[in-house]
Amino acid sequence: MIDITLPDGSVKTFENGVTPMDVAKDISEGLARNVISAKFNDTIVETVTPLEENGDLVLYTWNDDEGKKAFWHSSSHVVAQAIEELYPGVKLTIGPAIENGFYYDIDFGDHSISEKDFPKIEKRAMEIARGKHPYKMREVSKKDALNYYQKQGNEYKVELISALEDGTITFCDHDSFTDLCRGGHIPNTGYIKALKLLSVAGAYWRGDENNPQLTRVYGISFPKQKELTEYLELLEEAKKRDHRKLGRELELFTFSQKVGQGLPLWLPKGAALRDRLEQFLKKAQKKAGYEMVISPHIGQKELYVTSGHYAKYGEDSFQPIHTPKEDEEFLLKPMNCPHHCEIYNAKPFSYRELPKRYAEFGTVYRYEQSGELHGLTRVRGFTQDDAHIFCTQDQLDQEFKNVIDLSLYVLGSLGFENFTAQVSVRDLDKPEKYIGSVDNWEKAEQAIINAAEEKGLKYSVVPGEAAFYGPKLDFMVKDALGRNWQLGTIQVDYNLPERFDLTYKGSDNELHRPVMIHRAPFGSMERFVALLLEHSGGNFPLWLTPEQAIVLPVSEKHEKYAEKVLKSLENHEIRALVDDRNETVGKKIREAEMSKIPFMLIVGDSEEAEGTLSVRRHGGEDLGAISPERFADLVQKEINSTLKSF
Ligand SMILES: [Zn+2]
Ligand SMILES: [Zn+2]
């Protein structure tokens, strides 16, 4: 008999050789129907794997990430089988699950495929799925495994197997299909009720451009047809909200091949919007005791060798800038922190003067691979809403709370409600990985958890995710489509104060090391604007949006009155413009809707006679005719409801 411990801590005794599925059945028939994957003693197993020792068992359903992973990986086998049948001679490589679905990298040889071929592959894949073929794992000797793929002439699998140790190699069979696989499958193909291929792309074998190019086929699958339909709808909506598309339509930013890939150019409306974001944060930061500093875009290579950033970014990023002077090298700054450390070092501080909080909208440069670039979310030059707090260990607790307050204020003012926090702490089994005293780490981790607790954050603690130099808290935001984005971060650092020999004079008259906190509530201006666009679909909060109102004269003879209304709005600090084109009001309204302008103010004969404007809200709601002053009040009230003072 063996003892199986379940996640709730309960222990059940079973006969040796019991399977995860048997355990599920023992718990309830309902659970057994839903179990699709399992983990035993920290190893992913099949639902039919016999368990032969005491241990911890976790059963996964579709609702668990691990369950989805097994589901999607299993689906990749089915798609691979369909493709192998339809395109004889193709060479399979790897087919993992990804965040949404799966892919399979395949060498198509003389064949080629495009999206037009998807329906026939999907059709065959679903036929296979309906066959309810069980996934069966078997051990294979290294010799037999190599032999199997050498016979097929599949050099990719041969390469993979060559790197594996004999005795650890397994194949997975289902129906007439066999694949090299570590395991982690759903019970049988019949669980797949809906499957769709999404795209094809080129991908180098092992991600190395010196290797042959393969075809990556992306797909997704679901246990219910309805879920696929919903997913495809979401995908459509995501396309509409793609920040690259909206950024173009709303004239916020652009890219130029001449300027260079991954280097965004902010257009006037985008620059103004970004400036409003910066002013908003500056104002709150000032109240929170931050001081603005400014540092150059480059620094001597030595600076980054001292900070350790050269070791991290040097080789793989922009290469040093040389000057006429021999041996003189500068780097584009990949981080603002080293500069801020030197600002701290500009004069000695006593404990009474701490904390020092230095803030800068600092632009940094990192060389991202061209394949990784994506709109404003992955760029080669971006501006962090950066700040570094230098404080004593005793002040850490309070400072962390203050930063959380500021971050919550920022998120709230921008309409984010659905956010969580992730607290990254040490891996206690690997103390050698971390710099700084255990005592300080314990205090810092506790300070972060206390702060998260006290501020009522929904948070999770993830061991082993801390950087070597300190624990951190990341804000994660779910956007309107339920996608997770990592936003601002608050990071404790024991490393840079050492490297830059930062000190303060304590009450004992001795020199001590301050602790450093890095924080950026937006993350970066670029990434944040991208997220705002995708979250709001381009409907920004009223205080931030490029134009708050557009005045639409019904005909040419109302233009003068429209100009007068505009002046009056401007006097009330409302950002507005007049559409005086010789077009129908209907067309002007449609276009203002497209531009996502929150208020359309229609002025014709009666409005002019009564000194009013007819207010139509974006989306169609009619608020009737009111005076410009009352409209200004309405705007102010609405702004005040989201933008509270800090
Ligand atoms: Zn597999
Ligand atoms: Zn920093």
What does it look like?
The protein has 646 residues and is an alpha+beta fold. It contains 20 helices and 33 strands. Strands 16-20-21-28-25-24-22-23 form an 8-stranded mixed sheet, with helices on both faces. It has a 5-stranded mixed sheet with strand order 2-1-5-3-4, sandwiched between helices. Strands 6, 7, 8, 12 and 13 form a 5-stranded antiparallel sheet that branches. The longest helix is centred in the N-terminal third of the chain and has 22 residues, at 65-86. The mean pLDDT is 93. The structure holds zinc ion (ZN) (2 copies). One zinc ion binds next to loops. This is Threonine--tRNA ligase.
How much of the residues is beta strand, in percent? 25-35%
Largest sheet properties: 8 strands, mixed
Which blocks of ≥5 consecutive residues have pLDDT under 50? none
User: How many β strands by DSSP?
Assistant: 33
Helix proportion: 25-40%
Q: Report the span from N to C terminus.
A: 62 Å
Radius of gyration: 30 Å
The hetero compounds bound to this protein are: zinc ion
The quaternary organization reads as single chain
Category by helix and strand content = alpha+beta
General shape? globular
Protein name: Threonine--tRNA ligase
Cofactor: Zn(2+)
Family: Belongs to the class-II aminoacyl-tRNA synthetase family.
GO molecular function: ligase activity
